[in-house]
Every structure is written in C-alpha cells, then in structure tokens.
Amino acid sequence: MSNRTFTMVKPDATGKGYTGAILDQIIKGGFSIKAMKWLKLTPEQAGAFYEVHKARPFYGELVEFMSSGPIVAAILEKENAVEDFRKLIGATNPAQAEEGTIRKNFAASIGENAVHGSDSDENAAIEGAFFFSRLERF
Ligand code: ATP
Ligand code: MG
Known about the structure:
Blueprint: E1 4-9, H1 11-15, H2 19-28, E2 32-39, H3 43-49, H4 59-66, E3 71-77, H5 81-89, H6 102-106, E4 115-117, H7 121-131
Antiparallel strand pairs: 1-3, 1-4, 2-3
Helix pairs in contact: 3-4
Adenosine-5'-triphosphate binds next to helix 4 and strand 4.
C-alpha cells in the first residue's frame, strides 16, 4: 500500500470557479499536497494520459473535454491515499455519487465530473510521473 495518489481538477470545475473549494475539501479530507501545477493539456497530451481508455466509445469526447480548458494536477499524500481519495471523490457518475463527495458537490455529468483520482498505486505513480519531474515533488 502506497501513501500517494494523483489528482486533477478537470476543466469543467476550473471553468466554474470551483478550484479553491475542491482543493479545500481535499485538504480538509486529510490529504497533503506534494506537487501541484495549473496548466492546459493539448489534445495529444490528454490522449496520451487517457491512453488506457483508447478503445472506449467516449475516448474522443474525453480527450476533447480534458484539453478544453485549464486543469490543476497534483500529487497527494495520506495513509491509504488511493482508496481514501476515491471515496472522497465519489462515483464516476455524479448522479450515483454519495452525498458530500466532491463529484456530488461539484460535478454535472459522467463525462464532466470535476476531478480525477488514480485507481491503483501503480497508476498513481505513473500518472504523477506524467506531470511532475523528481525536482517538482516534495
Ligand atoms: P477518473 O479516471 O477521471 O478518475 P473514473 O476512474 O471514475 O474517472 P474511468 O472509468 O477511469 O472513471 O473513466 C475516465 C473518465 O472518462 C471519467 O472520469 C469520465 O470523465 C470519462 N467517462 C467515463 N465513462 C464515461 C461515459 N460513459 N461517457 C462519457 N465519459 C465517460
Ligand atoms: Mg479512472
């Protein structure tokens, strides 16, 4: 079990001005920030990040959405980080997300769902390394 996960505040949420409130909920949820940046992905970069979903019918839509506006990328630390963060963000579809979760509070649809959270320790490490060099992680 690793104590780190990777997250993005997605373009729907940055565009609606929810960045501060989402980061506040993450910090109050017990996570500390180990790396962070604000940037806009190109379609090529978004496509590479979500390469695992290439065969899925929503891949084109997902790449277009994730490159449509700025995101916040961050590495977070907490005991049992991956699992606890998935609990904090709630189900992929906000309509099925539990009350009080970030997606319930801030997401509008299954496609535009406010935040990303890594689904395993292995992917957390891969995703963190996609955005941050060794010099940018503390
Ligand atoms: P994420 O990886 O972003 O944390 P997740 O692990 O809850 O989300 P995945 O199955 O990995 O869900 O899907 C990745 C992303 O693709 C979703 O967060 C969402 O933005 C988009 N997505 C997933 N399913 C659909 C769908 N049926 N229609 C449109 N977009 C979808
Ligand atoms: Mg996922």
